[in-house]
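FAQ: What does the model actually see?

It sees only this:
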Amino acid sequence: MQAFLKGSSSQSTKPQKIKAAGPSGEKKQRPIPWVEKYRPKCVDEVAFQEEVVAVLKKSLEGADLPNLLFYGPPGTGKTSTILAAARELYGPELFRQRVLELNASDERGIQVVREKVKNFAQLTVAGSRADGKPCPPFKIIILDEADSMTNAAQAALRRTMEKESRTTRFCLICNYVSRIIEPLTSRCSKFRFRPLANDVQEERLLNICEKENIKYTKEAIQALVKVSDGDLRKAITFLQSVARLNGEKEITESAVIEIAGVVPSKLVDGLLQICYKGTFDKMEIAVKEVDKCLADGADEYLQLMSLCAVIMQQASQSS
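And it is asked to produce this:
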């Protein structure tokens, strides 16, 4: 039966999938999230992280790279920077063979370090790039969200970093460097990624709007920068969401606030005026961790109602 199936599969002609083409016969490109579409392709395109870019440029010139530790708020370019540096080192042909990227929040146990990381680190590399440029004799292992790794996994990783230092370089990426054990931080060059400045974010957003032919107002771009709070990835995601929601219409500030789920500033100012006019205890309101609940995924309307209820309760007690 198996021989029959094999023979029939080799002789039968499989229907080929026809890719959709436009009116001019050109193939349609698959839609890509703008965060990935406009991710930096080289180190020079990384924004606002001058110190990291300068060190990486010197390392790329000598085809050598130390173990790296990138830390800082989300959306500041940590993963994009090391991926751009790896593409410059290996080129598009060897990139997939020489780079191992793992998300430590999903794979954070000691078993992952013993199997995936250790096996990849033990492989020797050889060969040269197709374009003739020098290719470094080491691989790169990227551990994203390394602060989610258990202490046992981090301890096992320390030994692997020591043993495979000739053939492998490690790049640990995290939001909180205090959660990385000291033996790992002492073996890496540490770089802090700062939240992006407002003018840098505005420049990137305007560049995307120009390439995507998006109509916008100046207040809308300022609102995107404000709600993102230094997180360029969040700003680009909000921009794409608003653009898809509005279609060909102009992007306005109200549309940005609606898509971001932010409490309007006029309402916040009104609540603050009520608090300052009253004589009740303001600390009782401050302890309401509304921001934390919102970050954990709570409903904005319910959290606003909870805050208003506390204000009314304190106002009634003080009167």
